[in-house]
Specification:
Length: 87
């Protein structure tokens, strides 16, 4: 008969290595304006999901889409400047 044992030690033995590196945290911080703009767009879309959007709602969604595009452009241009390439 085989005994079933816990593998908790084996699973958590590498927990320190599972933390994000400084480079990964820097990348997340660099992408944060785009992430926040995406959240604003989702908020605007969710707000009107169960009703007909008013003219004000449509403007809010358009502004949020423009912010997403601008944040994406800024992120890509910033990455291109860092690598020395053109976007």
């Amino acid at each position: 008969m085989d005994h079933i044992v816990t593998v908790q030690d084996a699973v958590t033995a590498f927990a320190d290595f599972m933390e994000p590196t400084n480079a990964e945290l820097d990348a997340i911080e660099q992408e944060m304006p785009l992430i926040l703009a995406d959240v604003d767009l989702l908020d605007a879309q969710i707000f009107v999901i169960d009703r007909t959007p008013t003219m004000l709602d449509e403007r809010r969604i358009r502004r949020a889409r423009r912010r997403v595009l601008a944040a994406h452009r800024d992120l890509v241009n910033g990455l291109a400047e860092q690598t020395g390439g053109a976007a």
